[in-house]
Task: structure prediction
Amino acid sequence: MNPSQYLFLILLGTFCVYGLWKTSSRSWQTPRVHAKASIQFDLSIPASSPSVLHRFSNRTSKRATEKSHRRYRGVVSKYMLELYHRRSDVDIVRALEPIHVSGPIDDGAKILVFSLPPIDPDEVLEVAELLGVAGSILRVRLDTFESCRSRRDDGWRAFNVTTAVARSGGVVRFRVYGRVGYHPCGDGPILLLSYAKVRRRKRPRRSVQEEEADEADEGPPRRRRKNSCRRRSMYVDFALIAYDDWVVAPPGYEAYQCSGKCFYPFGDHLSPTKHAIVQTLVHGALQGQVDQGGGRPVGRACCVPTRLAPTSLLYLDASGTLTYQYGYEDMVVAECGCR
Result:
């Protein structure tokens, strides 16, 4: 123990003895107030220790994780969690749980009934599979008594039922053979629907040079000022904005933000619109003038996102269906510019 630590302990002990003496001498006057102060003092000492703070943070994080698991228990399929973590490039995958499971019928099979989601015009169904843990589903037959082909995916077995789902009118039934029952740990039979997004062609964007040429600016040359508009970090914690009520994974992500000022002339990387160029020129021409309200009549062009990128999410949609989307659109700032 070094001298400074020894001195600190002596001072701390002296302070404690003095506090106890003051408390005992006045306990008949204000016992409740001093009891409260004593409790606050006792709590303040361990809170100042970094190791205690670290343990408290770990406990809080663990409780939050357990709460999240309890919230989604019985909803989140283990297969869907694996799909998210291995970052499958399938556009959209929905996992449907059966709305009804019958008891064994004459040939020992069980009937699984699924309610299909409404058709989205921007999506095309590619594959539909009835999936279960390997060994739990041995055979799947359609209403036509046609057997379905299957594939293995690690510890899972998937039966191709695309034809039956495609011609279904909203409800589809399967005769399933094997050990099909209630699985509370997220490994029960699910109907996987894999979709591809409809790609729409976008009109090619004109270059900055073409836009500036159309302006044909005849004004005097201006001193070039450095544009500070650029992309900066912004981490989004879904729990902070209550998105963790429907987003299963991830707990948060780097969304980025745009900040800074826009000055004329603009750099090519800022891809300004014609309106942004005109607005910035007018703002400069009216520099120093004020309107009747005391403010400037025309503001400067703003630094905003000009291109957004998607991110992968595992979430519950409006109907409560567990959905994996490889490209959840417009979530990440990819480029910043002046508008």
The chain is about 30% helix and 30% strand. Residues 91-197 form a domain with the Jelly Rolls fold (CATH 2.60.120). The CA atoms of residues 7 and 266 lie 63 Å apart.
